[in-house]
Write a structure and sequence with these properties.
Helices cover 27% and strands 25% of the residues. It is an alpha/beta fold.
């Protein structure tokens, strides 16, 4: 079947929309008509940095749509189901087996290789094979082949075109708070960086009943939005010392901190602001070689935990429908973060995501 897809052939944000053939779904795959897809910073990074994924490739990993066809062995989904596509995982490795699929041993193969595990591609064009399967979906297209595992059924009364970002960025921030850090009612948290991931963390902290939620950023509009979405303290990191302000307000530091910025100074402050038996979660990086400054004595004396977090430790079949329920109940108003673009304006949407003009761009197919 032919469809339209944004094909990346170089190392830039240039992804012209082309006519691309998409395969029939195999045994455990589904064909999804993409209704809309979010743009995440991982799309931008993979587009610009050589070596992270092959070319030509169709990126996009926050797709939402309607199941059109299912493979012979698919039991979880049926045509007509509404789905959010999320990261893919193998389902068979030790971390998948213990319900931590975001740390799947096969993540490089299933999310970044652009191919099925047997080496075939789901997409092809005039010039031959085109890599698909990006995060098990490649959603910058009118149709996507997903695996049954990473296509998550959602309720039909929810606005489907809004839901794609739950599959990555919003799941990452909210899951970090609710799953990874396990924030309990009455605890405190500092969120460094309030883009889409950080704002999702702020909303989740409010859902969990945090007593104090510190939001740190350098963009006044984002800080204002963070306050509306639940932050009790907002700190402009460009104007004041976030660490000093947090310690002044809490005495011993916060129970949890989350860095979403990958900024060295923010990471240092995120670790240093964590009080006794607290945890600092790291969910962003500038490069594989980036290191974090950890004060060993201060961390020893406080029994601090510093941990990496991917996809908010989500078990997507459970967590994404839960986030949809939170949204429908008015407790997770992530529609406030979103800006819609027609698919044809993907270049502008990518530019606005990269520059930060749009917190969470969504392409309407
Ligand atoms: Zn696995
Ligand atoms: Zn992402």
């Amino acid at each position: 079947m032919n469809m339209r897809a944004a094909v990346l052939r170089e190392h830039s944000l240039r992804m012209p929309i082309e006519c691309v053939a998409v395969d029939e779904p195999r045994a455990h795959e589904v064909l999804v008509r993409v209704v809309a897809t979010g743009i995440c910073h991982t799309d931008i990074k993979v587009a610009q940095v050589p070596g992270l994924s092959p070319r030509p490739i169709v990126l996009g990993h926050e797709g939402a749509g309607v199941v059109e066809k299912v493979g012979a062995n698919v039991t979880k989904l049926a045509p007509g189901d509404h789905v959010v596509m999320t990261f893919d995982s193998c389902g068979a490795c030790p971390t998948c087996a213990v319900g931590k699929p975001s740390y799947c041993h096969e993540v490089a193969a299933v999310c970044f290789s652009g191919k099925r595990l047997d080496g075939s591609t789901t997409l092809s064009g005039d010039g031959g094979a085109i890599h698909g399967n990006f995060f098990g979906q490649s959603s910058f297209a009118t149709h996507a082949i997903a695996n049954e595992r990473n296509a998550i059924k959602v309720r039909k009364d929810a606005p489907l075109e809004l839901l794609g970002p739950l599959g990555c960025g919003l799941q990452t921030g909210s899951g970090a708070v609710l799953n990874s850090l396990g924030l309990r009612a009455g605890q405190t948290i500092a969120v460094f960086g309030v883009g889409a991931v950080g704002l999702a963390a702020v909303m989740a902290a409010r859902i969990a009943g945090a007593s104090r939620i510190f939001a740190i950023d350098v963009v006044p509009e984002r800080l204002a939005l963070a306050r509306e979405l639940g932050a009790t303290h907002v700190i402009d990191g460009g104007k004041s010392d976030a660490l000093r302000e947090i310690l002044a307000a809490t005495g011993t530091g916060v129970d949890h901190a989350l860095d979403t910025t990958a900024n060295d100074k923010c990471i240092e402050q995120a670790i240093d602001c964590v009080g006794p038996l607290g945890t600092c979660g790291l969910i962003a990086n500038k490069s594989p070689a980036q290191t974090a400054p950890v004060k060993i004595l201060g961390s020893m004396l406080r029994g601090r935990t510093i941990r990496g977090i991917v996809q908010g430790d989500s078990v997507p079949d459970i967590f994404i429908p839960r986030l949809v329920d939170f949204f429908m109940d008015g407790r997770f108003p992530f529609d406030r973060l979103v800006k819609f673009y027609p698919f044809e304006q993907i270049a502008e949407a990518l530019r606005d995501a990269d520059s930060g003009v749009a917190i969470k761009p969504i392409l309407r197919m």
